[in-house]
Every structure is written in structure tokens, then in C-alpha cells.
């Protein structure tokens, strides 16, 4: 189980993949071309990472009027990334308060 968990988190360790997932989470399903425009990345980069995300089950794809749409099968990844972002923001606030000399409101780490 731990090995599978490590593989799962390894898929999330690449910034481009996180950006692709985040875009689909926030802006909805999209074609490769739409994701390229949204993220201002090269088509080959988007295709490579979407292929990995699809093969790992992180995204699904479906035909739509002669094109392929990438989507998230459920909201689990959006929720997970949201929790991680909250934790990072909490830690940043904690350390900013320490640097400013204020007593931190919470441990944050």
C-alpha cells in the first residue's frame, strides 16, 4: 500500500501536472489545445503529462464532436490539492508572523 501511495504522490510532484489538474478543477473539462492556451505551455508538454495522468487514472477522457475532452472522474484530487494549499498558506502565515515579531496565532506546521 505504501508503494502505491508513493506512486500516487509522485504523479502530483510535477508542477505541470498540478497546473493541468488545477485548471481542470477550476475551469472544467478541456481539450489539449484549450489547456495549452489556459496554461501557456507547449502542446507536446501538455500531451505528455495528460497521457501520464490518464494512464494513472487521475483524469479521464471522452470524445466530444470530433475532439477529446479531458476531465476529472471525481472531485477527490481537487479536494486533496485544496487541503494541501490550505496547509501551505497556514505555514506561510505562521512563518510570516514569526518574522514580523508577532506571536503566531497557531503552530501552522
Automatic annotation (TrEMBL):
Domain of life: Bacteria
PROSITE patterns: HTH_ARSR_2
Keyword DNA-binding appears in the UniProt entry: yes
Claim: Protein transport is one of the keywords in the record: no
Domain HTH arsR-type stretches: 1-92
One of the record's GO molecular function terms: DNA-binding transcription factor activity
Pfam families the UniProt entry points to: HTH_5
InterPro entries named in the record: ArsR-like_HTH (IPR011991), HTH_ArsR_DNA-bd_dom (IPR001845), HTH_MetalResp_TranReg (IPR051081), WH-like_DNA-bd_sf (IPR036388), WH_DNA-bd_sf (IPR036390)
Keywords annotated in UniProt: DNA-binding, Transcription, Transcription regulation
Protein name: Bacterial regulatory protein arsr family
Organism this protein belongs to: Akkermansia glycaniphila
Organismal lineage: Bacteria, Pseudomonadati, Verrucomicrobiota, Verrucomicrobiia, Verrucomicrobiales
Amino acid at each position: 500500500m505504501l508503494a502505491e501511495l508513493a506512486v500516487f504522490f509522485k504523479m502530483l510532484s510535477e508542477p505541470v501536472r498540478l497546473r493541468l489538474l488545477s485548471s481542470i478543477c477550476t475551469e472544467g473539462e478541456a481539450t489539449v489545445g484549450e489547456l495549452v492556451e489556459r496554461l501557456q505551455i507547449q502542446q507536446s508538454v501538455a500531451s505528455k503529462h495528460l497521457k501520464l495522468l490518464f494512464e494513472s487514472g487521475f483524469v479521464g477522457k471522452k470524445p466530444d464532436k470530433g475532439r477529446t475532452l479531458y476531465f476529472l472522474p471525481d472531485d477527490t484530487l481537487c479536494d486533496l490539492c485544496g487541503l494541501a494549499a490550505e496547509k501551505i498558506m497556514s505555514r506561510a502565515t505562521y512563518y510570516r508572523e514569526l518574522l514580523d515579531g508577532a506571536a503566531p496565532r497557531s503552530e501552522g506546521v
